[in-house]
Amino acid sequence: MPDPHEVSQDTHARSLARIHELTTQLLDVGDISTFLQRVAESVSDLFGFERTSISIVDEARGIFTDHALVGYSPEEEAEIRTNEEAFLKESILSDFKEECRLTSTAYYIPAEKQSAPLEDFVAVKDQGAARRPRESQTSWHELDLLYFALHGRNGEIIGYMQVDYPKDRKVPSIATVREVELFAGIAAVGIENSKVFKRVHDLLVENEGKTENLVKLLDLTRSVLRVEDLSVILQRIASAMVDSFGYRKSGVALFSEGSDEVTTLALAGYTKEEKEVIKKGRILKSIVLADFKEEFRITPTGYFIPGETQITLVDQFTFIEDKGRAKKPRESPDAWHELDLLYFALYNRERKMVGYLQLDYPE
After folding, report:
1. Do 47 and 179 contact (CB within 8 A), yes or no?
2. pLDDT digits (tens, 9 = 90+) for 302-357
3. Cα(300)–Cα(250) distance, rounded to whole angstroms?
4. How many other CB atoms are there within 10 angstroms of residue 113's CB atom?
5. Residues near 177 by Cβ (< 8 Å), separated by ≥ 6?
6. What is the phi/psi pair of residue 117, to 5°?
7. Within a 10 A sphere around the Cβ of 52, how many other Cβ atoms?
8. With contact defined as beta carbons under 8 Å apart, do 230 and 26 qualify?
9. Alpha-carbon span 31 to 130, nearest angstrom
10. pTM of the predicted model as reported, rounded to 2 decimal places
11. Which of 185, 155, 249 is nearest to 36 (CA)?
12. What is the C-alpha separation between 336 and 362, in angstroms, rounded?
């Protein structure tokens, strides 16, 4: 079973930055295979898996088809894409057993619990190692499987992500599994968005006589997807920042088109009363953007604004947990100050800033 060891702070930071990039791409998925390839590459790169794949269910044929493959040779990719028997929906889902569940979507099936013969496995790297017993309790076996179910809006499985061959040859920790699960969730939302958009687009093509009205429907559908699905995934991310990245409070806000108003879409770690204070408060885009200065940039999208630069602006803060501490000096050079700000800018495909994620009160 996966051990409880934590993910490194460096991996946390890089994972957070990649989540930001992929989340902004959800605004306009476009080619779903390209998007899923980016997700798979991110998982392999961040968490040290030699192979990552993402498959989407094809209900008509009763199989899962691979839309993203990372770490496979051209010959192995060809073997995978032509071997439909190895990816029958019924066969794959038979591995999603409750006894193998690690989290809400992750399943670890150790080699010892598998009934399928070695010949049924595709692209096994070392046939000899596959026939030998596991070297130690924590070591990864050639036939181990680690799946992440991708769920649709109604809870149905619409695909899965598989990670394989961890570079350290160890069974991944539960902390790593939970973090990879965030990327699986992003992949699932991307698949759903692309399917809905494709249905409307197909309807447009089939009904050329109603082009004008259908174009309006297409635009409306896209805008609804942006608001509904983005809100859901942003809330998940805000919650993940609190649960996994060591911050007590987190929030995500987007700029209003053609207005100076900022809309807070997700809050995590705040009490009901605190949320009401923030929702009722007025946040202005011009004020927020004044903090996004080059001198405060710490990553391509991250900005740290020290509290010392905010002392005279205390009254402009929408929420402060302890106003008494806000007026006191920093306790030590590495201590968090009540007025410190940590922002991560959110950009659309045109690299226009559309909002930000804020992390506050590190534990």
Report:
1. yes
2. 898 888 887 666 667 777 788 888 888 888 877 888 888 888 888 877 788 888 88
3. 20
4. 13
5. 2, 102, 103, 106, 108, 146
6. -70, 160
7. 26
8. yes
9. 36
10. 0.60
11. 185
12. 7
